[in-house]
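Request: Give me one sample?
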Amino acid sequence: MNQALEKDINLQIAKKLEQILKEKNVKVIMTREEEERLADSNTEDLKERVRIINNKKPTLAVSIHQNSYSDKNVQGAQVFYYKNSSEGKKAAITLQEALLAVDSGNTRQAKANDTYYMLKKTEVPLIIVECGFLSNPKEAEKLIKKEYQQELAEALSSGILEYLML
């Protein structure tokens, strides 16, 4: 929509989140810290992320993304979890609620999924956070702003910290 690349926004939010969590003494393992993918293809990139997660076995894995849809009016952050993961569901609901602090007009709910590769293949609770819709002009404009990215990172850190305390 605004020529912003999802991978760039994802990494910017993830790095902000990493910094906040480290300041709170939470051990953070990033699967990507640079602009480059972990492999040549999307499939191999996802497999490598799953390998890292399964090898490190974190308490919770969080994969940050941006959504898009054919209807440019669709908006709002949404968290997905693997349908058979009670811990994933608990984490997703907690983070979804935390994201409402950033956008009180967001009516999306945490949602179960059984088709996303990373959700199916990780051995620890993993959630996918879609921070907003790049296909929505207003939301896309917010998502490229550092201040909004910081708000998202702060909300996600609050949700992660709350989940870890449960």
Summary: The mean pLDDT is 94. Residues 72 and 136 are 5 Å apart (CA to CA). The domain at 6-30+60-165 is CATH 3.40.630.40 (Aminopeptidase). The two ends are 39 Å apart (CA to CA).
